[in-house]
Amino acid sequence: MNAELFSVDPVVNVSARKEPFMNSRRLPRLRALALGLLLAAPAMGWAFSSGSSGADGVLAPTVNTEVVLPPSGVLNYTSINIPTGVTVTFRKNTTNTPVVLLVSGPAAKVGRER
User: What is the pTM of this model?
Assistant: First the structure.
């Protein structure tokens, strides 16, 4: 056998290191790009749909309220407005599913939910 077939070059170029992707020069540019896309989204007609049917109507309590959770755990509202000082509590259903709030319009929460 020829010994040159199995020879390995022991010299490694250590000075040719690659710059990390998220270096200090790229990060501000990536942040600016992300912010620009977020600000341009409404102008470009990008919309988000929660998939709410609105079947549960409006949730706008004026006093502390307890909402009975359906078996699915999903509540479909057209809008939610919980004012300051009002607490919304969700009553467990028999299968103890998590609460999922879907809203087809605006949602503002200043009060508390439990």
Answer: 0.55
